Amino acid sequence: MRYAQRGGLRPVEQVKREAVRLEAAKRFEAGAGTAQVAAELRVTDRSVRRWRAAWRHGGAGALASAGPMAVERLSPQQWQRLEAELKRGPLAHGFDDEEQGWTLKRVKLLIGRLFHVGYTVQGVWRLLRRHGWSCQVPVRRALERDEEAIEVWKAEVWPRVKVPRTTWGAHICFADESGQSLIPPRGRTWAPRGARPVVRVAGRRGGRVNVAGVVCFKSGHRPRMFFKLHVHHGRKGELKTFAWSDYRDFIRMVHLQLGTPVVWVWDNLSVHLQQELFDFEAEHKDWLVIFHLPPYAPEINPQEGIWSLLKRALADFAAADLTHLTRVIKRKLQKIQYRPHLITGCLPTTGLDLTGLVETPDIADST
Questions:
Q1: How far is residue 263 from each of residues 160, 246, 248, measured CA to CA in Å?
Q2: Residues in CB range of 168: below 8 A, 6 or more apart
Q3: Which of 67, 96, 133, 158 suits a disulfide with 128, CB 3.0-4.6 Å?
Q4: What is the maximum span of the chain, computed from C-alpha positions, in angstroms?
Q5: Torsion angle, alpha carbons of 3, 5, 11, 14, to 10
Q6: What is the radius of gyration, based on Cα positions, of the chain?
């Protein structure tokens, strides 16, 4: 009798589990105790006792894998087709447009429609797990997003963005805005199963801290990150966020800090499109050129990765007031400034051609 696997394991995981059991059989033959085998193989004592009982009745062969508990009812060709259809999304198959996620019941119905094969809900779960699928939180994308325009921007505009890098010796700067109220992002923590932990946070919003940030890249130089804060207290007549003049001063400050011409890349926020900023660009065309990202394409901007790091650091943080929150945000961003590898790590996720943009920095420049 061969060792029965739990359903849902992928073939690679089954091979690893089998290797551990066979290694345990060798230790059984050498007379090793249960606690010793469990410690050396990093498994539980209960598992070792179960394996030892199977080994006594059938030897090492009893610990060999018997494969998945459920026989695969879909051929490799059918699975490839099912995977392709699942990647198209539920909307492509006529499911309710208000719920855009795949559920086990929906996958079960889709398998029946495509192949006239009956699966239980539990069988669908095992099938998906066996092929490396898992239940995940999807990335949100705007309905107004134009995929074709984004690809055109990458193919035609992005090469133009990189031209001043060689002709001017310019830094390419990606700018973006974010904000945080007194209510922090949700994070994760360890707790006993079934006992949901409780964290105490501010119950009132009481204003907001807005942050304008920019990451700057130039071949042969360490990446740089700059930021500017704007605190909104919620008072009457107070500006809620940055004005065009704040962005003008921010661009000028970044240029002075870098000491090189600047290629400025940001989104199509209404304040970014004000005529005063276009006039500012025209007045300083000897060191400044501005490009706009395609609409609803935040993943192209590496500054989004900086915001992700910031939100993760602020998860479940209880700020006493806006002054406290401002101080913490400034400290978290300063920590990122002194870690160039974190800034560089935000580039690959953009999907842009990074040839010649990021190289090993000179030692003299990084000091």
A1: 10, 18, 14
A2: 260, 261, 287
A3: 133
A4: 87
A5: -60
A6: 28
DSSP state of 286: T
Contact 268, 153 (CB under 8 A): no
The rounded distance, in Å, linking the Cα atoms of 225 and 213 is: 7
Residues with Cβ within 8 Å of 147's Cβ and at least 6 positions away in sequence, in order, are none
pLDDT tens for residues 44-94? Answer: 999 999 999 999 988 888 888 776 555 678 888 999 999 999 988 888 888
Q: How many residues belong to the chain?
A: 367
Distances from the Cα of 214 to the Cα of 223, 259, 307, 353, 358, angstroms: 11, 15, 11, 19, 16
Q: Any bridge partners for residue 172, and if so which?
A: 217, 263
Q: Are 110 and 82 in contact (CB under 8 A)?
A: yes
Question: What are 226's two structure tokens?
Answer: 């700059």
Which residue matches tokens 């949700």? 186
Closest CA to 221 of 264, 250, 260, 248: 260
CA dihedral (186, 188, 193, 198) positive or negative = negative
Distance CA(41)–CA(50), nearest Å, equals 14
pLDDT band at residue 367 using 50, 70 and 90 as cut-offs:
very low
DSSP state of 155: I
**pLDDT number for residue 361:** 40
DSSP structural state of residue 356:
T
- Reported as a single tens digit per residue, the pLDDT across 305-363 is 999 999 999 888 888 888 999 999 999 999 999 999 999 999 988 988 888 776 544 43
Cα(105)–Cα(119) distance, rounded to whole angstroms? 10
CA dist 362 and 72 (Å) reads 55
Ranges of H-type helices in 236-344: 244-258, 275-283, 303-313, 322-337, 340-344
- 161: nearest Cα among 331, 355, 326: 355
Is the separation of the CB atoms in 16 and 137 below 8 Å? no
- Angle formed at CA 77 by CA 73 and CA 81, multiple of 5 degrees: 95
